[in-house]
Specification:
By secondary structure, the chain is mainly alpha-helical. It contains 2 helices and 2 strands, in the order ββαα.
Length: 103
């Protein structure tokens, strides 16, 4: 009843001013909706980002795997050298190395 919309007294306002004011409110509302949707998208990234941060910072067994690999390579090199000494006339002594599977 008192002629106020959104806290604005519209009685002495012209129709053009009223329509322009409504248009401004509409535009502001659309921009706020865009901001809200962008905030939702940002918020949706927090869970995966937290998980990725955890995975990037957990302890690995890389040092142990490095030592195992070096020991395996050393044993392989020693076996190839032994095969070359025993079968020096053979073209591909690596084919004569026994395959050994260990734990």
């Amino acid at each position: 009843g008192d002629g106020a919309i959104f806290g604005l007294n519209i009685l002495p306002m012209s129709l053009g001013t009223f329509l322009a004011t409504i248009h401004v409110f509409k535009e502001v509302g659309a921009e706020l909706e865009t901001i809200f949707n962008q905030m939702l998208a940002i918020q949706a990234c927090f869970g995966p980002l937290r998980r990725l941060t955890y995975l990037m910072n957990i302890e690995t067994d890389m040092l142990q795997q490095k030592l195992i690999n070096r020991r395996r390579r050393k044993e392989g090199r020693e076996q190839r050298e032994a095969a070359r000494m025993l079968h020096s006339g053979t073209a591909y002594t690596v084919d004569l190395v026994q395959i050994i599977v260990t734990d």
